C-alpha cells in the first residue's frame, strides 16, 4: 500500500504517471496497472488522464493531501526512529506575486540557501491565483484576507499597509484632494483586479469606485504611472515605501488607508510539513518581524 501511495503522490507532483513509474522503478504499464488497481480498491477515480497532461479529480485532490500527510508523517517517524534530525533538503517550490516576489522574496534566497544548501528552490512569480495542488507548489505567498480552508494552513508574515499617494508633480498640477469626495475630480490609477478601493479611517469603512485613467492588469504599470505623475494610486508600503521616504511619492488623505483585513501570508499544506517548507516560512517570518523592513521609515 505504501508503494501505491508513493506512486500516486509522485504522479501528481510530476504531472506524469510514466515519470512517477520511472522514479519508483516501474514500467509505464506496471505503473498504470497499479494505479488502476488502487482506484478499483477505493471505488473512486483519482486522476484524469489525457495525452498531454495528468490532473487529479476532485476526489484525487483530497486523497492526495491525505496521502501526502501520511507519507510525510512516515518520513518524520522514520527519521526520529533512526535518531536523525529532519534536515531541510530537496526541492522547494515557491509561488509569489510578481512585484512582491521580486522585491522581498528573491533577495532573501541567498541567505536561505547559505543556511540550507541541500534545498533546491524554484521560485515562480505570478499575479494570478495559485492552486497549490494543481501547480505542485509547496509554499504560496498571498496578499489577501486570511485564507479560510481546512485543507491549507496560513501564517501571517506581515500586515499589508496601503496608502493613497501621488507624485509631487501631479499634485502641483492638479491640486491635493482634501476629502474622499474630491477624488472624483482627479485622475485615479488602479489595476483591473484592484477596484473598487476599500478604505478605512478609525473604524469607518468606505468603498471608492475607480475608473482608472489607464486600463491595465499590471500592478507594476500602475506604480510606474503614479511615479510619472499620471494620477493618484492606492499602493502597498512594501511597494512604494522607499519612494514615500524619498519624496518621489507623497501620501494624500493620510487619515485613510486600505482595508486592514488584507495581510501577507505564507500558505502551505497542513502539518506534518517537509523540513524545507518549515525552514523557509520561518526564514521569511524572521526577516519581516517584528516590523517589516519597508515600514522601518514611516511614510509621510
Task: Write a structural description.
By secondary structure, this protein is an alpha+beta fold. The chain contains ten helices and 14 strands. A hairpin with a 4-residue loop joins β1 and β2. α1 packs across α4 and α2 crosses α3. The protein starts with a helix and ends in a 12-residue tail after the last helix.
How far apart the termini lie comes to 61 Å
Q: Strand order of the main beta sheet, please?
A: 4-3-5-14-6
- Strand fraction: 15-25%
CATH class call of the largest domain: Alpha Beta
Could you give the count of β-strands?
A: 14
CATH homolog superfamily of the largest domain: Periplasmic binding protein-like II
What is the total number of structural domains?
A: 3
Keywords:
alpha+beta, Arc Repressor Mutant, subunit A, D-Maltodextrin-Binding Protein, domain 2, 3 domains, four-stranded mixed sheet, elongated
How would you summarize what this structure contains?
With about 300 residues, the protein is α+β, with helices and mostly antiparallel strands. It has ten helices and 14 strands.
Write the layout of secondary structure elements.
Elements: H1 2-14, H2 17-23, H3 28-42, E1 47-49, E2 54-56, H4 58-81, E3 90-96, H5 98-105, H6 109-115, E4 119-125, E5 139-145, E6 152-159, E7 162-166, H7 168-174, E8 188-189, E9 197-201, E10 204-208, H8 219-227, E11 232-236, H9 237-246, E12 250-251, E13 257-258, E14 262-269, H10 275-288
Parallel strand pairs: 3-4, 3-5, 8-11
Antiparallel strand pairs: 1-2, 5-14, 6-14, 7-11, 7-12, 9-10, 9-13
Amino acid at each position: 500500500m505504501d508503494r501505491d501511495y508513493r506512486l500516486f503522490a509522485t504522479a501528481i507532483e510530476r504531472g506524469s504517471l510514466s515519470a512517477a513509474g520511472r522514479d519508483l522503478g516501474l514500467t509505464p504499464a506496471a505503473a498504470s496497472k497499479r494505479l488502476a488497481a488502487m482506484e478499483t480498491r477505493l471505488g473512486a477515480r483519482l486522476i484524469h488522464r489525457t495525452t498531454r497532461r495528468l490532473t487529479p479529480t476532485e476526489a484525487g485532490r483530497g486523497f492526495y493531501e491525505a496521502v501526502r500527510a501520511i507519507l510525510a508523517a512516515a518520513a518524520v517517524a522514520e527519521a526520529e526512529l533512526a535518531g536523525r534530525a529532519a534536515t531541510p533538503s530537496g526541492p522547494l517550490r515557491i509561488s509569489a506575486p510578481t512585484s512582491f516576489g521580486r522585491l522581498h522574496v528573491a533577495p532573501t534566497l541567498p541567505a536561505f540557501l547559505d543556511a540550507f544548501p541541500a534545498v533546491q528552490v524554484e521560485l515562480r512569480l505570478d499575479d494570478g491565483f495559485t492552486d497549490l495542488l494543481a501547480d505542485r507548489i509547496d509554499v504560496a505567498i498571498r496578499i489577501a484576507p486570511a485564507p479560510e480552508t481546512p485543507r491549507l494552513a496560513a501564517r501571517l508574515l506581515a500586515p499589508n499597509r496601503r496608502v493613497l499617494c501621488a507624485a509631487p508633480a501631479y499634485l502641483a498640477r492638479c491640486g491635493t484632494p482634501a476629502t474622499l469626495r474630491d477624488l472624483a475630480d482627479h485622475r485615479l490609477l488602479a489595476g483591473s483586479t484592484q477596484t473598487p478601493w476599500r478604505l478605512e479611517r478609525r473604524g469607518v469603512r468606505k468603498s471608492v469606485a475607480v475608473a482608472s485613467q489607464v486600463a491595465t492588469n499590471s500592478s507594476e504599470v500602475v506604480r510606474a504611472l503614479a511615479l510619472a505623475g499620471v494620477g493618484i494610486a492606492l499602493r502597498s508600503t512594501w511597494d512604494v515605501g522607499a519612494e514615500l521616504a524619498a519624496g518621489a511619492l507623497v501620501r494624500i488623505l493620510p487619515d485613510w488607508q486600505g482595508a486592514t483585513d488584507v495581510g501577507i501570508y505564507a500558505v502551505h499544506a497542513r502539518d506534518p510539513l517537509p523540513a524545507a517548507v518549515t525552514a523557509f516560512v520561518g526564514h521569511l517570518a524572521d526577516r519581516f518581524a517584528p516590523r517589516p523592513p519597508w515600514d522601518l521609515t514611516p511614510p509621510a
